[in-house]
Amino acid sequence: MRIVLTYGTFDLFHIGHVRLLQRARTFGDKLVVGVSSDKFNEEKGKKSIICYEHRAAIVAAMKDVDDVISEDSWNQKETDIKKLNADILVMGDDWEGKFDHFRDICEVKYVPRTHGISTSQLKEVLKPFSSKEISDLKDSFTTLENFIRQLNG
Ligand code: C2G
């Protein structure tokens, strides 16, 4: 039983995440995914929009994913690899070289990222619909409505 391990935030789950998990699963018989906790995300300098519970449930719902664990720190990988008897650590190639030091306890593979999609891009798209902009928009519509009312007497 070859066990594959990967980690990530998986916020605003998108096709890049799907493809990574599908690819990771092809390297073994069981895929375990460490999903970054909300607290660890802040340590990573990320504020995830979707809470950990939902991010973990979404990842767990993937048919290629067999188990989900919480990723709470940068330093848990070695313990996880040993505890899970993981044979291979798989990460997107934006992490190329960053986890080579685990090669003494498991294989390490970096797979090509999916271009043209990222959580930060999705956040940019969603930004205009943030509550501040929406309330500003509502205020301007009310002003316009009152102005039209006055015009019509
Ligand atoms: N990914 C990808 N293609 C994208 C976006 C992400 O292949 N367009 C991959 C990343 O390379 C990573 C995984 O999907 O392997 C999860 O990406 P993120 O949710 O951004 O997670 P990250 O911040 O890379 O966290 O300790 C490791 C960290 O937890 C990894």
Structure description:
The protein is an alpha/beta fold and 153 residues long. The chain has one domain (3-152): HUPs (Rossmann fold, 3-Layer(aba) Sandwich), CATH 3.40.50. 42% of the residues lie in helices and 18% in strands. The chain has helices at residues 15-25, 38-43, 52-61, 77-84, 119-126, 131-151; strands spanning 3-8, 30-36, 67-71, 88-92, 107-111. It has a 5-stranded parallel sheet with strand order 3-2-1-4-5. Helix 1 (15-25) links the parallel strand 1 (3-8) and strand 2 (30-36). It is elongated, with a radius of gyration of 21 Å. The N and C termini lie far apart (79 Å). The relative contact order is 0.17. It binds [cytidine-5'-phosphate] glycerylphosphoric acid ester. The site of [cytidine-5'-phosphate] glycerylphosphoric acid ester has 18 residues, from strand 1, helix 1 and strand 4.
